[in-house]
Amino acid sequence: MIGRRNKRQPAFDDETFLMFLTRHDTYLYKMSYLYLKNDQDALENVQEVAYRAWKHRHTLLDATIAKTWLTRIAINCALDMLKKTQGIRVDYATAATDVAEPVIFEERLVNDLYLQELLEVLTVAERTILFLRYYEDYTLQHVADLLQIPVSTVKSTLYRAIQKVQAKQVKGGGAK
To answer: Nearest 5 degrees, angle CA 86-CA 91-CA 94?
Structure first.
């Protein structure tokens, strides 16, 4: 029949899918680092996400949910890696060295360490929701859909996370 397809077509062709992956590599790294807290593990996780996404790209039928689909793969890969390593390894040393602007690099490093120290009081679920809501600017409904939990759970977890961070900050939970 004209106008009807027997099969549903994937959302992207191969070249467009590669561009999509490349455009979101920094996002995938940040999401991976949020879970794994280690540069090398996060980079390895991004590679695994790219592999799994490429392998299953034909299952993505709607381009409007592509980033959500990719985020879900990143979370699952990170959780798989955490299960394999039996816990979270913390590595505060950064591989980046910026010789041209040492003052800015040191300032950024201090701020990053301060933020990491503040976020240490949070569980992985709390950090994930905080990251998706405030860093990625997702709506509460989108976060709930992405994590497959009720919106009320997202709200209560977010409120609890904010309270923990504020309490740590008031106690002097890190020197700026």
So the answer is: 145
Q: Rounded to whole angstroms, what are the CA distances from 142 to 136, 153, 154, 166?
A: 11, 13, 10, 25
Contact 157, 126 (CB under 8 A): yes
pLDDT at 84: 82
Q: What is the DSSP letter of 69?
A: H
Total residue count of the chain as it appears in this document: 176
Q: How far apart are CA 71 and CA 49, in angstroms?
A: 9
Which tokens belong to 166? 């504020």
The residues near 20 (Cβ < 8 Å, ≥ 6 apart) are: 12, 66, 70
Taking every pair of Cα atoms in the chain, the longest distance, rounded to a whole number of angstroms, is 70
pLDDT tens figures, 64-90: 888 889 988 998 898 888 888 754 444
Per the confidence metrics, is the pTM higher than 0.90?
A: no
Question: Residue 118 is encoded by which pair of tokens?
Answer: 């503040």
Q: Quote the crossing angle between the two packed helices 140-147 and 66-85, to the nearest 10°.
A: 50
> Residue 133 to residues 41, 101, 127: CA-CA distances in angstroms?
24, 32, 10
